[in-house]
Amino acid sequence: MPVTIVEVSDLAVSFAGTEVLSGISFVMQAGDFLGLVGPNGSGKTTLVRALLGLESPSRGKIHLFGQPRERFQQWQRVGYVPQISGTNHLGFPASVREIVASGCLAGKSFPRRLYPEDRLAVEEVLELVDIKALAGRKIDRLSGGQRQRVYLARALVAEPELLLLDEPTAALDPSARESFYELLQRINQEQQRSIVMVTHDSGSIGRYATTLLYIDRRLVFFGSFGEFCHSAAMTDYFGGHAQHLICHRHGTDRVPQ
Amino acid sequence: MSALLSSLFEAFGYAFIQRAFIAGTFVALSCAILGVFLVLRRFALIGEGLGHVSFGAIGLCLLLQLHPVYFSIPLVVLASLWILYLSERSKVQGDAAIGLTASLGVATGVLLASIGGGYNIDLFSYLFGNILVISKTEVLLSIVLSLAVVAVVVLLYHDLFVTAFEEEYARVIGAPTRWINIVLVVCTALTVVLGIRVVGIMLVSSLLIFPAIASLQVAASFRWALIIAALFAVFSVWTGIIASYLWDLPSGATIVFVNFGCFLAASAVGRLLGRG
Fold it and tell me: Which of A55, A78, B40, B138 is the most buried if burial means most Cβ atoms within 10 Å?
């Protein structure tokens, strides 16, 4: 029986009296890999921040693991990989191991300490995301792809059931991007972790995500990629050519007739 | 050489030199450790700002005939919370909040000096500090407050680290970032007041900034950045006190120049190691 882990109903978020998101409703089940797609300024990051409690809804409800988000405290069940840029953390003297270990603090109560089992978890997750060789390196000495793996490791180390990733592949070249997607797919399928990934890469995400949530300040589409590619409403919305471009990279069976 | 050594041994025989070493070591340690967090949070100039505030606070204490160090502590702590409030809760950016508060502090000091008249020399003696005239009680206060600051940093180490690295991520994983920021600025206010006796109001931010930026040139991890900053700070204070005694130099300025020397050396080593 499917377990609902995220439930969003009629969500709206406003900044200075202007609604930047409205009418967002969707349900996510355990094990889903949700691609959150939309144009620039469509509110993707705002939606993720609202899920994380970093933005307050002006209307609507968010439930995480069956609890209203305002009362949700089990943040170790949610891993977060924020958006990064090339200049993030330039000159910060932290090693990869130190950064990944900071993810173990999720859900711990004051005074937060790291225990031997946390150190073990760090070594395991470094292995999982294939950055063990970088453990002693400073974060600002890594490439964009390597840094993205470090942040993924930090999010994974507390063994969350849900991963929220905000444009993790934005700064990556195509080959690093594909390898990152494959890693996420492995984490989703082998470890049964649910994933919400914000991306502009609407073409590639279809090959890995199980569900598509397309927003443009409001809900445009929510469903499987198959449904998206065969939806006449989406053909009307995007135009046949744009819909074809989004769909063709994951097989002709999803290309609109 | 032997004359130099005998002068050194002679120096350590004086109680005022011993007091300077003890107080200087503890103040340098707490300043260096906090400095790493402040520099990485782009909040390094808060030391400069609070130093200027302490000018006004000390002026007020002198006017009211209160002990300048003890009674300026709560005033400078309040100013630190005011800066934090302005930068977090209002539309005033962090550096502007520091500048604004610092200007008010200096203006208060100048006004009070003008009104009070007679104590101008006392007030202006705090501008450049003199660790060699530090009292026994001030040494004790330096030890207690510095140890308290170091204990807070040790207790909150992981929360301070994750907040310094990425405040938003820290909030997501449940770190009490608001309280962490309050603790950081209050500890900074305490160390600034103590640092004024070591290098003076005008130079106090150097105790926070120099060891931190020197350590950032060479440290390969955060833990090592704190350790190296502490070592640089203590070395600078010790060397500065000895040099100022031997060659009759102003102690505060000498300590700052030794710190600068450490920074240059660390930059060179950092380049050699490929970390600078």
Answer: A78
Q: What is the rounded (10 degree) CA torsion for B207, B211, B212, B213? A: 110
ipTM for the assembly: 0.85
Q: Are B218 and B270 in contact (CB under 8 A)?
A: yes
Note if the bond before A111 is cis, omega within 30 degrees. yes
Q: What is the DSSP string of B72-129?
A: HHHHHHHHHHHHHHHHHHSS--HHHHHHHHHHHHHHHHHHHHHHH-TTHHHHHHHHH-
User: In the 8-state DSSP scheme, what is residue A95?
Assistant: B
Nearest C-alpha neighbor of A209 from the set A17, A27, A36, A30: A36
Alpha-carbon gap: A240 to the closest alpha carbon of chain B (Å): 40
Q: Are B39 and B216 in contact (CB under 8 A)?
A: yes
Residue A9 region by backbone torsions, left for phi larger than 0, else alpha for psi between -120 and 50, else beta: beta
- Say what the pTM is: 0.87
Q: Does A91 touch chain B (CB under 8 A)?
A: yes
User: Inter-chain contact A80–B176, Cβ cutoff 8 Å?
Assistant: no
> Tens of pLDDT along B108-145?
988 888 887 656 666 767 887 777 778 888 899 999 98
Distances (CA, A) of A162 to A33, A63, A81, A103, A183: 10, 13, 11, 14, 15
Hey, which residues 16-55 in chain B have their CB within 8 Å of chain A?
A: 40
How far is the C-alpha of B23 from the C-alpha of B234, rounded, in Å?
11
CA dihedral sign of residues A50, A56, A57, A61: positive
Q: Which residue of A has its CA nearest to B173?
A: A106
